[in-house]
Amino acid sequence: MRRTFITLALLLPAAGAAAQTFPNRPVRILVGFTPGTTTDIIARIVAARMGETLGQQVVVENMPGVSGNLAGAAAARAQPDGHTLLLGGTSLIVSPYLYRKLPYNPPRDLAPVGLIATVPNVLVVHPSLPARDLKALIAMARSSPGKLDYSSSGKGSAGHLSMELLKSMAGVDIVEVPYKSSAQALSDVVGGQVAMNFPSLSAALPQIRGGRVRALAVSGSQRSGGAPEIPTVAEAGGLPGYEANGWYGLFAPSATPREVMLRVHAEMAKVVRMDDVRQRLGAQGADIVGSGPDELAQALKGAGERWGKLIRQLGLQLD
After folding, report:
1. Nearest to 281 by CA among 109, 35, 48
2. Domains 8-118+246-314 and 122-237 alike in fold
3. Sign of the CA dihedral 278, 279, 283, 287?
C-alpha cells in the first residue's frame, strides 16, 4: 500500500479566526520517548526558543510507549488548532509497515509542519574488535557468518533497521541481541558484552570521544557536521546508495488550519537559525535543516518506500 503524508495543499481551507488568535494558550510538543533521548533533547532545545518567539509557553510532554505511537495517536486526536504538536521521527513512517494494528493512521491523521534536523546513526564497535574500519568488519562477518553480534533497542527501531539494511546490502550475517532500551544496548557494547551497536550519533558521541567505543561509519548519505571525521557507510564500506538518516520534524493534526501551520513552521525555521540553537543542536550531532511541510513530505515519502521495502524483505510484523 502506498502511504504519503498530507501536505499543506491538501489540507482543509484555513479557519481565519483560529489563525488570528493562535497561540492563545501554551503550546504542547508531544514526544513519544523518555527524557534524555535524542527526540526529547531536540524538542526541548527548540521549545525553549519557540516559546519566546510565539509569545506563549511551549512545553514538552513525554508520552513514551509503542515506539512513539502513543504520542502520535494523542497528537492525531488533539484539537486541530496548532496548540498540540508532535515531534516525530523514523517511527512515524516505519510503524504503518511494522505494526498490524495501530490506534491511528500516521499518514492520514498527521500533517508535516517542517523538518528541524537530521541526526545520523553511527556504527560503533568495542575497541577490542580487530576491525579498524567498516570494510574490515564486513570481511570479518563474511568469513565467520553468525559469529558477530550487535545490540538493538528492539525490532523496527532506527538502530535495528540501520543494521539490517547494512547486512542486506553487504550480504553478511550478524546476530541481533535485542534490549529494552537504546541506552542499555549501547552500554553493553561499552562493557564488551556485545560487539557493536548502531545508536544515534548524539547518544554515541560522548562514548566515541572518550575512546570507549570505536566509530566506523555514519548512516547518512553525507558526513555529519557533528562529526565530520567519521565516514559514511557508503564510502567506508563500499556500499553506494546506503542511507539511513534519522530525522526530527514537527507534525500537527491533519485538519489544522493552513495559516496556523505556516506560522508554526515560520517560528520553527526562525529558531533553528539562532546561533545558540545551532550550537546546541550541533552538539547533539544534528545537521540543521529547517525546511517546510512539502520538503518534509517528500523526505517521508522516500524514506517510507525504502523502509517499507526492507521491512517486507525481513518479514517483520508486530502486534
Report:
1. 48
2. yes
3. positive
